[in-house]
Amino acid sequence: MDGLAHQIVAGIATGGIYASVALAIVMIYQATHHVNFAQGEMATLSTFIAWSMIQAGMPYWVAFFGTIVVSFAIGVVVERILIRPVANAPVLTMVGVFIGLLLIIGNATGWIFGYTTKVFPSPFASDKPLFGGLVSAHELGSTLVTLTVLVLVWAFFRFTRLGLAMRAAAYNPRSARLVGIRVGWMLALGWGLAAAIGAVAGMMVAPVVFLDPTMMLGILLYAFAGALMGGIDNPAGAVLGGFSVGVLENLAGAYVVGTELKLTVALAIIIGVLVVRPSGLFGRVVLSRV
């Protein structure tokens, strides 16, 4: 039973990372109705920026918040320069842009920082077992950081005028323009916020998987599975889906398929959701007459 409890708690910790990336994916999807395949590479680049700040002598939390600011700016710049000119392009064009962005950022990260695996420090390092050894200090700390970010994002969209304007621009751009909302800038801010959330996820996962340019590839797949499970158009559902995928992945890896085949769990979830309920567990089913 202790082993089962540890797998569930560890799954919740890793699921929090997946939930963060899933939320970033959903935020961009709501605004553009496209999936940002480069979300993982953007998070990896942000984590390397944090690593560089720490190596330069900055305290961890100064580098942490500094990276969030830089990542937000990178997200805004990407939307303004690369995404905005093709905003009304066909779907295949957008897919090509996102794949190109994935390759460009991934290769640029490796070219700038190198392809050798690096150790990323954890601010929660502790040799003492917590809760009877069920969870490590980093797992508990990263879960609390992730939950704090998710609560702050929810409060931002629920209680601030800017958050409400961004939601309006995402749901109905035409009506939002009629009431004076600058939809273009709301989209850019959404990209910046998604990049910042991805940066937090990258910095929380890097101490576990170590830092290299391909660090987020598998995590992006798990996050995408969580977003589909919860509903690609439902931020809260995507968060719940991310936590669920984390628990399912850990349990399946420990008791069903083994650690070598854990990635197949995410693929099975993606296929199962697309076949049984394409809108996800909490997504909206949209019907249109023709």
From TrEMBL:
Signal peptide stretch: none
UniProt subcellular location: Cell membrane
Main localization category: membrane
Domain of life per record: Bacteria
Topological category with respect to the lipid bilayer: Multi-pass membrane protein
A GO molecular-function annotation: transmembrane transporter activity
Keywords assigned by UniProt, alphabetized: Amino-acid transport, Cell membrane, Membrane, Transmembrane, Transmembrane helix, Transport
One Gene Ontology term, aspect cellular component: plasma membrane
GO biological process, one term: amino acid transport
Pfam family, one: BPD_transp_2
Protein family: Belongs to the binding-protein-dependent transport system permease family. LivHM subfamily.
Name of the protein in its database record: Branched-chain amino acid ABC transporter permease
